[in-house]
Design brief:
Layout: H1 2-32, E1 58-59, E2 96-98, E3 104-109, E4 120-125, E5 135-139, E6 145-147, E7 152-160, E8 165-172, E9 179-187, E10 194-201, E11 206-215, E12 219-230, H2 241-249, E13 254-257, H3 261-264, E14 287-289, E15 294-296, H4 302-312, E16 315-318, H5 336-339
Parallel strand pairs: 1-13, 13-16
Antiparallel strand pairs: 2-5, 3-4, 4-12, 5-11, 6-11, 7-10, 7-12, 8-9, 8-11, 14-15
Length: about 350
């Protein structure tokens, strides 16, 4: 049996080797043949397609103060002393004290006249013989306020005092030594909050200025919702003219706002709520953007973005939170408050 199987195996092996050689030869010959392909493009007008007008636009997101402290012209950071949320003591940064513990005491309480922003700043002047410049508080804005010679700045603030108190509001250099603009403000005594408006005309230029509110006589005064805006905003709508001019040069056909991660938040408790960004700016509660880690008072809100879209001639692309953040989400049965456009009546 063994002697008969050997020739058969030999013949089988030989046939396999012949087939393998033929196959390799064919494959090799195929690679030697040059393959030529041609591509025809018909660019005639009859087949052309118009590029959509809305192809190019602006994707805006509130990152690194692109809005608050950026295109939005508000110069005061944390204008309502609410950066710590609704609880007291609140985080008043970047507000700081002018004076020392023996001359002035500053704290927060929940006595504001604004229903949705209850935190107010209480300032007590303790000195009988106060320094020449007075004692009080100052705000450096976002990396310093860019104050320019000859320009007008509109100050709005709310105050109350049990007894009449004279204060000074001024724009100074970062060390307080150079006074660029100054005005006296009188807060009449009483239990009611009053709104104070004051125009400050700069007599000099300093790109790292600050706003000061000071007093020289003993007394107690409450302050809240302090705003400082340049008078020459774009079309009077609150946006920085020079930055909007750059946006106009882009000729955007849409504006997407106010962002992606900014809208979601790291946690839903800190997510952007568009309804909280409309209405009187004093009543907007603001929120802590926990993705980019800074507070925004939402003075630049839904309405302002719609206004900017109109000013740019761009279609508004509105981004809203749909009940999801980076770390949590709501049940779909509870999503209505997030996505309903109109509140229930």
């Amino acid at each position: 049996m063994g002697s008969k199987e050997t020739p058969c195996r030999a013949r089988t092996t030989l046939c396999f080797l012949l087939l393998f050689c033929v196959s390799c030869k064919c494959s090799a010959s195929e690679f030697e043949i040059t393959q030529v392909a041609s591509l025809g493009v018909d660019a005639s007008p009859r087949l052309s397609r118009k590029i959509p007008d809305t192809l190019f636009g602006i994707f805006f997101e509130e990152i690194n103060h692109a809005g608050a402290g950026g295109i939005w012209a508000e110069l005061v950071s944390n204008r309502g002393f609410e950066a710590g949320g609704p609880h007291t003591p609140s985080n008043i940064e970047p507000w700081s004290i002018i004076g020392d513990d023996s001359s002035v005491f500053v704290g927060t309480d929940r006595t504001s006249c604004f229903r949705r922003n209850k935190v107010a700043l209480r300032m007590e002047v303790l000195c009988d013989n106060c320094p020449v410049g007075g004692v009080g508080i100052y705000n450096p804005g976002f990396w310093g306020m860019n104050i320019e010679d000859g320009k007008t700045y509109n100050l709005v603030m709310h105050a109350k005092s049990p007894e009449t108190i004279e204060m000074t509001v001024s724009l100074t250099s970062s060390d307080g030594l150079q006074v660029l603009a100054s005005a006296a403000i009188r807060v009449p005594g009483g239990s009611n909050w009053i709104k104070l408006d004051q125009k400050l005309v700069a007599q000099g230029t300093n790109r790292t200025s600050r706003l000061q509110i000071t007093a020289k006589t003993k007394g107690v005064v409450w302050l809240d919702q302090v705003s400082l805006m340049p008078s020459d905003t774009y079309k009077g709508h609150g946006f920085r003219t020079e930055l909007i001019s750059m946006l106009l040069d882009l000729k955007p056909r849409f504006l997407r706002f106010p962002g992606g991660c900014f809208v979601e938040g790291s946690w839903l408790r800190n997510a952007f709520r568009w309804r909280d960004s409309i209405g009187p700016w004093e009543e907007r509660p603001g929120h802590y953007g926990d993705v980019w880690n800074y507070w925004t008072d939402d003075g630049l809100g839904y309405y302002e973005f719609l206004q900017l879209s109109e000013d740019l001639g761009a279609a508004p692309v509105w981004v809203f939170n749909n009940g999801i953040s980076h770390h949590d989400e709501v049940d779909t049965t509870a999503i209505a408050p997030f996505v309903k456009v109109c509140p229930e009546v």
